[in-house]
Amino acid sequence: VEAANADKAIKDADVMFYIGTYNSGAAKISMPVLNKSNVVMISPANTYMGLTKPGLGEANEPGVYRPTGKINYFRVVPADDIQGLAAAEWMAKLGAKSVYVLDDRGLYGKGVADVLVQKAPEKGVALLGREGVAPKAQEYRSLMTKIKALNPDFVFYGGTTQTNAGQLAKDMVAVGLQAKLMVPDGCYEKAFIEAAGAENVNGRVFVTFGGAPPDKLTGKGADFVKAYREKYKAEPEGYAVYGYVAAKTALDVLAKVA
Contact 248/76 with Cβ under 8 angstroms? Predict the structure, then answer.
């Protein structure tokens, strides 16, 4: 789907900017395609380090996404090297002494989990285990039972709502695993609470996010939240303001060069 989206954009001569993507795995597909066609890409939500930071991803990143040698991709959100460290520090501040780390085997999920695995011991949080899970599995009760026997203070899941974070939260409760669950910004949305069930997340789940919640924004951020509420009669989710900033950046650039 992402390849088709990028193809559609480059075939339209009027397209000057590509706002996206939400997921880093999708960005990996469209970045080199748009680079070859000189279309500027601005992401509101990609946090995988290798998309822009040499030495923090795979050996050939980010060069592999820039076949022309030019830089056409930009993002307005902090990357996972910052988020993974923050997660480790937060666990330590919450009194955690141990963590079991899971990930969805995807570019984003594994990336943020890798940073957590590296940083947690430095913050005094012992790593009891690490494994990837099938992101479309029906349930994870046997896995949670195995983790329960280790009695970690936290389970960390590098993944998103769409890669079954809600089911993991449900199954932790179902088997009586008392550990708290920490998830990254890919779960910072109402859909995660709905998937997990509010009764399974209240007081048990902690979410890291590269920014402030809408009601904590000030200045221009507060103006955006007010305008959003008036227009859509709803609360903006975490990445709404980043989407706005990505588009505003494009328009500001266009005004300067056109």
Answer: no
Residues paired with 252 in a beta bridge = none
Strand ranges of the sheet holding 126-132, from the earlier edge strand across to the other edge: 126-132, 98-103, 154-158, 180-183, 205-207
Q: Give residue 238's region: left, alpha or beta (phi > 0; psi -120 to 50).
A: alpha
100 close to 152: Cβ distance less than 8 angstroms: yes
Decide if 204 contacts 180 (C-beta within 8 A). yes
What integer pLDDT is reported at residue 4 of this predicted model? 97
User: Per-residue pLDDT tens for 35-94?
Assistant: 999 999 999 999 999 999 999 888 899 999 999 999 999 999 999 889 999 999 999 999
Tens-digit pLDDT profile for residues 180-191: 999 999 999 999
Question: Is 202 exposed, middle or buried (CB count within 10 Å of its CB: 0-12, 13-18, 19+)?
Answer: exposed
CB-CB contact of 21 with 43 (8 Å): yes
SS3 192: helix
Query: Parallel, antiparallel, or unpaired for β 73-75 and 98-103?
Result: unpaired
Taking the CA of residue 204 as centre, how many other CA atoms within 13 Å lie in the half-sphere pointing to its CB? 21
Q: Rounded to an integer, what distance in angstroms lies between the CA atom of residue 175 and that of residue 155?
A: 14
Q: How far apart are CA 7 and CA 62, in angstroms?
A: 21
Taking the mean position of all CA atoms in its chain, how far away is CA 157? 11
As a whole number of angstroms, the distance between CA 24 and CA 22 comes to 7
**For position 227, what pLDDT does the model report?**
97
Q: Are 74 and 43 in contact (CB under 8 A)?
A: yes
